[in-house]
Amino acid sequence: MFLKLTILPMVILSIPITMFKNNSIEFTPALPTEKTEAFSKIAMGPGIKVHLKFNTKFYDDNIIGGKICAAYANELVGKNGSDNVLLAFIMGDQAAYLSSLPNDNAIITELLQELDTMYSGQASASFIAGHVEDWSKHPFIMGAYSYSTINMGNAREVAAKSIDDKLFFAGEAMNLNGHHQTVFGAAETGYREVINILNSVTK
Ligand SMILES: Cc1cc2nc3c(=O)[nH]c(=O)nc-3n(C[C@H](O)[C@H](O)[C@H](O)COP(=O)(O)OP(=O)(O)OC[C@H]3O[C@@H](n4cnc5c(N)ncnc54)[C@H](O)[C@@H]3O)c2cc1C
Hints:
The protein has helices spanning 17-21, 33-41, 92-99, 104-118, 122-126, 155-160, 183-201, and strands spanning 11-13, 42-44, 47-54, 62-64, 71-74, 84-91, 127-134, 146-148, 167-169. It is α+β, with helices and mostly antiparallel strands. It starts with 10 loop residues before the first strand and ends with a helix.
């Protein structure tokens, strides 16, 4: 009695949409044009988080409306601890601007200056340390999360369609339930593509 195993090359690609758009993977044969056109219509913006540690809590728990950072939040809310840490969450144009600055210190300085104008110089006076996380600079991510562009039509459907039951596409940008941009949206696409593979091998 022999068991015959057929190994079919099947791959689920779950890389960020930016990595498809900048051709970071070379496909042989090349991906169909409709696929690369669909990728080009799905956008991904920059995103930065900066943690700022101070020796006094001079700030409010939520600071809304800054020009450099629209939303700062006290990181200690809901957590145990005694450190005074403020989180600056920056997306879109402001993130692109900060990302263009020469280094992390320059980003931190911009934020401290903004906080100084709001709190009469207390930010710089009590600043201890800062940490910058700029997702657009991560070489294998290059952005925060995908967003839809005007007139993109059914680009997400085309982008997410498998090719010849061999290449399957997952990741947040390939979510078709409106849950793109999220962890659970990315997970949903993983389940979806595993089911698609199982369906294709049992055809
Ligand atoms: C600041 C910020 C806050 C967020 N907050 C939330 C939140 O509160 N709730 C929420 O649900 N979501 C949030 N998100 C979004 C969420 O993190 C993403 O939607 C989710 O991580 C996307 O998952 P993914 O698997 O599609 O991609 P990723 O998690 O980016 O995984 C893609 C993987 O592919 C790898 N990769 C890239 N290129 C290659 C290659 N050539 N070969 C092999 N591997 C490669 C990368 O290294 C990476 O590990 C946030 C995102 C950011 C940036």
